Amino acid sequence: MEKRICVLPGDGIGPEVTAEAVKLLEDVGRRFGHRFDVVYGDVGGSAVDEHGTPLPAETLAACDTSDAVLLGAVGGPKWDREPVERRPETGLLGLRKHLGVYANLRPVKVFAELANASTLKPEVLAGIDLVIVRELTGGLYFGQPRGRQVGPDGVEVVDTLKYTEHEIERILVTAFEIARLRRKAVTSVDKANVLESSRLWREIAERVADRYPDVKLHHVLVDNAAMQLVKKPAQFDVIVTENLFGDILSDEAAMLTGSIGMLPSASLGAGPGLYEPVHGSAPDIAGKGLANPLATFLSVALMLRHSFGLQQEADAVEKAVEWVLRQGWRTADLTGGQPPYLTTTEMGDRVRDAILTGEYEDAKDAV
Ligand code: IPM
Ligand code: MN
């Protein structure tokens, strides 16, 4: 198989973790006989520095002509005072919108070896295997009007939470389709006791559920969902929710795994998929070799599976990550900063070696 991947390293630790992932792709290609061609583009603050915009036209063109996009992270204090059109996050949101990747999948699995890296008790973590399906191109992030003006009572601000029926229905369909391949339970998270958008969301969820009689649907209010996620996280299979709720709940869910450095994501639409670790650009540790590349590696696994249909190769990456953790190898985020720990590149090497040698093959399943 021959595929072209557009890599957007971005800011902070983004370049370090994507560099490891590019080497990973090469080794997966070597082991399984595929060719992955990599092209690069600028996005975020580094693109502002280089081109005066966080999302240059060249970057969009490079993404459009690729089979998938791998992004590191964007943002940092250097660009915090920039006007909105020059903010790194504007570049990321523009990219998601341009690619039309409305379905953001954030699988959360606890690796047995990391159970004690979490702040939660091991008995709470047992059996967690959930995926958050976050609507990614609508809601408060994109609704118009938005802005700031001065009114009779001083400054006034407005953000708009807007969804169309079509936008809600397609993300729910994604969630039900995914649930069918899993434990067949969808939890739809909303705030239907208060918000008009959530009331429509709930109606459509019911309607879609009628087409999936084999899948169970539950509605949970977002405040309760936040509580249930730390109280009894193993109850969830597929959680589907709108953009902002999904943003917040997925950071919370990341902590179940002990480190946000472990959480991958896939964003899917009609065109090339966008794959990114859930963690941010971590400017405080950038350039120090302290970043954990595993969330990016697991994002590559999602790319292999969802964009290229390479199931065996995706499994190999996930198993190799698990195997490396079983050997006791850790990056600093997983030891609470206590030495000994591996650098970003050392961790990358361990995983790649495992893939090339096939050592991971005796790995058992995660908790
Ligand atoms: C994420 C991030 C982004 C978001 C930011 C950087 C705009 O937090 O991918 O979760 O809120 O979507
Ligand atoms: Mn987020």
Q: Quick summary of this structure?
A:
Helix content is 40%, strand content 21%. It has 367 residues and is α/β, with parallel strands linked by helices.
Structure write-up:
The model has no long low-confidence stretch (mean pLDDT 96). It is globular and about 60 Å long. The protein has 367 residues and is of the alpha/beta class. A hairpin with a 4-residue loop joins strand 11 and strand 12 (273-277). The chain folds into two domains: 1-101 and 263-367, Isopropylmalate Dehydrogenase (3-Layer(aba) Sandwich); 119-257, 3-Layer(aba) Sandwich (Isopropylmalate Dehydrogenase). The protein has twelve helices and twelve strands. Strands 2-1-3-12-11-4-5-10-8-9 form a ten-stranded mixed sheet, with helices on both faces. It has a two-stranded antiparallel sheet with strand order 6-7. It binds 3-isopropylmalic acid and manganese (II) ion. Residues 75, 89, 92, 247 line the site of 3-isopropylmalic acid (IPM).
Helix content: 25-40%
Number of helices: 12
Strand order of the main beta sheet, please? 2-1-3-12-11-4-5-10-8-9
The CATH class name of the largest domain reads Alpha Beta
List the keywords.
367 residues, alpha/beta, Isopropylmalate Dehydrogenase, 21% strand, binds 3-isopropylmalic acid, binds manganese (II) ion
Q: How are the secondary structure elements laid out?
A:
Blueprint: E1 2-10, H1 14-32, E2 35-40, H2 45-51, H3 57-64, E3 68-73, H4 88-99, E4 103-109, H5 122-125, E5 129-135, E6 143-151, E7 154-160, H6 165-180, E8 185-190, H7 196-210, E9 216-221, H8 222-231, E10 238-241, H9 243-254, E11 264-268, E12 273-277, H10 294-306, H11 311-326, H12 344-357
Parallel strand pairs: 1-2, 1-3, 3-12, 5-10, 8-9, 8-10
Antiparallel strand pairs: 4-5, 4-11, 6-7, 11-12
Helix pairs in contact: 1-10, 1-12, 6-7, 8-9, 10-11, 11-12
Bound molecules: 3-isopropylmalic acid and manganese (II) ion.
